[in-house]
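ugh ok fine here u go
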Amino acid sequence: MDDELDGKQGVQSLEIGMSILKAMVAGHRSMMLKDIAAAAGMSPPKVHRYLVSLIRAGLVEQDPLTSRYDIGQFALRIGLVAIDRLDRIRLGVAAISDLRDQLNQTVALAVWADRGPVIVRWERPRRPITVNVVTGVHLHLLNSAGGRVFGAFMPKAKIDPLLADELKTLTLPDAIRTRARAEAMLDEVRRTGIATISEGYFAEGVEAAAAPVFNFKGEISMALVVVGVQGTLDMGLDGPLIADLRHAATDLSARLGYAGGAAAVSPSGQ
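structure:
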């Protein structure tokens, strides 16, 4: 019986130690003991006892000059190993499969390649009339929902030359035919965290909505894209389709280590 109690106490101690680490990670900076205690909801003496053990384990380190605590080298190694082992495409494929089942619409996964966004996988819904998406197709930044998401959140240095070329070569609706109007559209995508397009889509009779997926650095990693026959999708930002799309992207971002909320990343290049 005593062994059982000791075992439970040991697990509880580990959970308390992890809650202190979580408070430090959420702080996004080195912290004083009193700040860690406040963030963890514990007394400073109690937190200090755990910090001593965490320092011995290499999970926390203390600056002798400032007395501030920060994440230790072993904790950083754990994070790097986790990132190295994380298969973002596998997670993305699982996400679009789940979203397809939820919406019963075509759902695709796009990533950034050498020449811009590209579709790497798509899932077909169970309905008589569907939109097929070609794996490997490159998306323009201005006339596709997935492209607009990348245009809004990729670094400005990568986006500017592509935008300039598309404005010269693509047939675009009046609403985005100039650089100023295109930039205003991308600003709106950054503000809402969602890109929708019905008029001027690169494929006739098709409309789409897309949401960005961020990694642990707050950088755009992928885009989830819902595609349907024009006039069949509820494109309202407050509608259920967009809510489900936003939730799927936010959940996938969290699995990739992103700690912010949906559309919380500052515009790229600023």
